[in-house]
Amino acid sequence: MFFKILQNDRETKARNGLLKTKNGEIETPVFMPVGTSGTVKALTPKQLADSGAQIILCNTYHLYLRPGTEVMKKFKSLHNFMAWTKPILTDSGGFQIFSLKDNSKVNETGVIFKSHIDGKKIFLSPENVVDIQNILNSDIQMVLDYFKPQPSTRKEEEEALAITHNWAHRAREHFLESTHRKNAQFAIIQGGLFTDLRAESARILTEMNFEGYGIGGLSVGESKAEFERIISDLLPVMPEKKPRYLMGSGTPEDILLAVEMGVDMFDCVLPTRNARNGTLFTSRGKLVIKNEKYKYDTQPPDPGCSCYTCRYFSRAYLRHLFLSKEISSAILNTLHNLHYYLDFMSEIRYAIKQFKFGSFKENFLSLYKKGV
Question: Catalytic residues, which ones?
Fold first, then answer.
C-alpha cells in the first residue's frame, strides 16, 4: 500500500491524499459505506459503485460466522464472492466485543464469543483474525483491539489498553510472516477519554510501523465535547505520513470537524441505517419522510441533489413507500443517503484542493442547520 498527501489546506489541517491498494486507488478524505456481512444493505455492488463508492467496509466477525472461511476459500476472496472489484477494508471484530459484551469474554490470549446466530462458542485471537482476513483477502485489515464503554475508570482503560497493545504486536508479527503482503494492516489507537493514554497508545503503535492508524473507541457514549477534545489532542501525535481513520463516527458535522484536524478515512452505518428507518440527509439537515407534512409534497428529498431518487421521486411518494413498508423504500432512501455522503466527501476534497475548506465548512453548516 502507498499513501501520498497531495494537498494541504492553508488555513486548517485538512488534507487531500491518495491511497493505493492492489484493487485500486482511493482519494481521501473518503467515506466507506458499511457492508458488514459482505453487502451494503438494499444496494447491489453496481449501484454502490455508480453512487461513487471508492471502498467499502466489511466485518471479519460476521463473515467468519456466516458464510464462513471454507466458503471464502472456494471463492479465493471476498471481492470475488460479492462481485466487488474495488478496495475492501475489514474490521477485526473488536467492536463486537463492545456491542456483544454479554456474549463475549476477553483474556490476554483473545476473546471467546457466544455466536449471536446459533449460540456456538468461537474463539478469536490476534493471529487467527489475521488468518481470517487473509482468506477474505481484504485490501486493508484492522487488528483485533479491545476498548471499554464510557464512562470507564483510568484503571479499566489501562488494563484494556495493555491488551490492545499486546494484541497489536502479535497481529503485526503474524501479518508480516503471512503471504498476503500486498494487503495493508492498520492498528487501532485506544485509551478512552484519557489524553495521555491516547498519546501513549499512538506512540507504542507507531513504533510497530503499521501501514495506517485507526482511532477507535469513540462515538460510544462520550459527550460531544469529549469527542472533540480527544480528536483535537490525538491528531497531532499520530503519524503524519500514514492514513488516519476515524472509526464509526459519521455525522456530517463530525466528519467536517475531523477532516479539519487531519483525518483521512471514515465509516458509519448512519446513512444506510437511517435510510431504512426513513430518515434522509439533505443539504438542510435531516428529513424524516414519515412525517405528515410530506403527504402532498411534490418536491424531491433534496432539490439540489442529482441522485436517481431525487431526479425521479417526490417526498410524498417516498413517504407512501415507507409507510407501506415497501422494499423499494429502503432501496431509494439508501441510494439517496449514500449519494449524499459520497458527494459530500467529493465536495470536501475539492474545497481542500482550492484551499477553501474553512469557508466550505462554514457555508455547509450554515445551510445544514437551517433545517428542511
Answer: 91, 267
